[in-house]
Amino acid sequence: MDADREEPVWTEARVAELIAELPPPPEGWVQAARELPEARRSLDELVARAEADASLRAEVLAGLELALERAGHDPDPRLRAILRARLEAGAEEGA
């Protein structure tokens, strides 16, 4: 590294100035950030119920798409994969 070069000074005020210069986030990101906490709570509740009841877990795993729709979620492939992984991990821990 060049000894003559000064390192930038990162004060709170400078970081705030740089952040203020950024463009606003896309509306989709803002909406997702608003919805994420409730979606996570809802999925956590579904997983907890399924972990406590083996027959419910089997039912949910057999029909992930329907289970997600009933819980108020869009059953996209990524969400189904996350739910399947959580339920299968819970089943292995309980075995």
What key phrases describe this protein's structure?
single chain, 95 residues, mainly alpha, 5 helices, 0% strand
Molecular structure report:
There is one protein chain. By secondary structure, this protein is mainly α. The chain has one domain. The chain is 74% helix and 0% strand. The protein is built from 5 helices and no strands. The protein has helices spanning 12-21, 27-52, 54-62, 64-70, 77-94. Helix 2 (27-52) packs parallel to helix 5 and helix 3 crosses helix 4. The chain starts with 11 loop residues before the first helix and ends with a helix. The model has no long low-confidence stretch (mean pLDDT 86).
Number of domains: 1
User: Quick check: average pLDDT?
Assistant: 86
So how many helices? 5
Low-confidence stretches: none
Can you give the helix content as a percent range?
A: over 70%
N→C terminal distance: 56 Å
Strand content: under 5%
Radius of gyration: 22 Å
Anisotropy-based shape: elongated
The major beta sheet can be summarized as: none
What would you call the structural class? mainly alpha
Give me the count of strands.
0
Order of helices and strands: HHHHH
Structure in a nutshell:
The protein has 95 residues and is an all-alpha fold. 74% of the residues lie in helices and 0% in strands.
What is the fold's blueprint, element by element?
Blueprint lengths: L11 H10 L5 H26 L1 H9 L1 H7 L6 H18 L1
Helix pairs in contact: 2-3, 2-5, 3-4
